């Protein structure tokens, strides 16, 4: 069987193989879409939902995203509108499970994907071959992020920015000044609880090398909310998995989304709770590592 696979790979162009893989694995995604359509129909029969946190939760669905981010992104842009279908996302691994895949593969969006691991970046390039997506292999720091954007002709207003580098997320977002995203999705660390804290900046930070539990990375939701507000964004909500927070630029959110407190929309990471215990137990494992308190 292995020899046959090697022969097929030599005969058939890689782009066609990737299309086949996407098609071959599409049955479950089609089921998800059918379920979402059914749910949307049911929701339309219900009274208008004024609870923004609940609205985010009910609009969650997954096509390519890690959890329900695809649905929330769809919901947000259905209310604020789309400008030019452009995005930037970094921390994508092989690109098959990220927040912008559904947009580029199914809805014609274009953009830039950045991945620090060379092998993952090469796989992502193959996966997105033939699509209006550029994949760049680069290890992101607060000192190089704007240059990476400019070197790849990314500047000014874009529709969506997604940040998920399991490390210096807070510090990198703080330094971005060459683009002006309408929506920002950034991962928060629920193990930090409601305290406004982030890891101390280290350019070569690697999550598992710093602590074997993997609990020491990124920033708390409240720290990101403070940064977002400083940068002109409101915290609109979070996915119920306890991973990602959704920020909308204040001028665009007006009359469409309300600013939410981090305490109200905070979700715990159920996977970490099962593996390490409650939040106090999780933080206890990393409490002696370096933190910056955000005022």
List keywords for this structure.
43% helix, two-stranded antiparallel ribbon, 9 strands, alpha/beta, 295 residues, single chain, Rossmann fold
Oligomer class:
single chain
- CATH architecture label name: 3-Layer(aba) Sandwich
Counting helices, strands and paired strands, the structural category is: alpha/beta
What is the average of the pLDDT values?
Answer: 90
Q: What is the terminal-to-terminal distance? A: 59 Å
CATH homologous superfamily? Vaccinia Virus protein VP39
Radius of gyration: 19 Å
Query: What proportion strand?
Result: 15-25%
The main sheet orders its strands as 3-2-1-4-5-8-7
Low-confidence stretches: none
Shape: globular
Your description of this structure?
- The chain has 295 residues and is α/β, with parallel strands linked by helices.
- The chain has a single domain (47-293), classed as Rossmann fold, CATH 3.40.50.150.
- It is built from 15 helices and nine strands.
- The strands form two sheets. A seven-stranded mixed β-sheet has the order 3-2-1-4-5-8-7, with helices on both faces.
- Strand 2, helix 7 (118-127) and strand 3 (133-137) form a beta-alpha-beta unit.
């Amino acid at each position: 069987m292995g020899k046959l696979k090697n022969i097929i790979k030599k005969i058939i162009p890689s782009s066609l193989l990737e299309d086949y893989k996407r098609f071959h694995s599409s049955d479950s995604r089609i089921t998800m879409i059918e379920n979402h359509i059914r749910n949307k129909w049911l929701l339309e029969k219900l009274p208008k939902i004024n609870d923004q946190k609940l609205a985010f939760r009910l609009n969650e669905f997954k096509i390519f995203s890690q959890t329900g981010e695809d649905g929330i992104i769809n919901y947000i842009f259905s209310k604020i509108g789309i400008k030019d279908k452009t995005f930037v996302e970094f921390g994508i691994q092989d690109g098959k499970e990220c927040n912008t895949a559904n947009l580029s593969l199914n809805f014609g969006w274009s953009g830039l994907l950045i991945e620090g691991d060379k092998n993952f970046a090469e796989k992502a390039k193959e996966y997105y071959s033939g699509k209006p997506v550029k994949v760049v292999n680069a290890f992101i720091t607060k000192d190089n992020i704007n240059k990476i954007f400019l070197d790849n002709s990314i500047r000014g207003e874009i529709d969506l920015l997604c940040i998920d580098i399991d490390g210096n997320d807070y510090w990198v977002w703080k330094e971005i000044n060459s683009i002006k995203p309408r929506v920002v999705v950034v991962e928060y660390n629920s193990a930090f609880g409601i305290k406004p804290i982030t890891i101390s900046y280290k350019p070569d930070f690697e999550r598992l090398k710093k602590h074997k539990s993997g609990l020491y990375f990124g920033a708390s939701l409240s720290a990101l909310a403070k940064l977002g507000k400083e940068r002109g964004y409101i915290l609109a909500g979070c996915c119920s998995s306890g991973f990602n927070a959704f920020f909308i630029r204040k001028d665009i959110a007006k009359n469409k989304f309300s600013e939410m407190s981090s305490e109200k929309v905070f979700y715990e990471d159920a996977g970490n709770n099962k593996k390490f215990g409650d939040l106090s137990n999780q933080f206890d494992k990393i409490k002696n590592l370096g933190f910056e308190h955000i005022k």
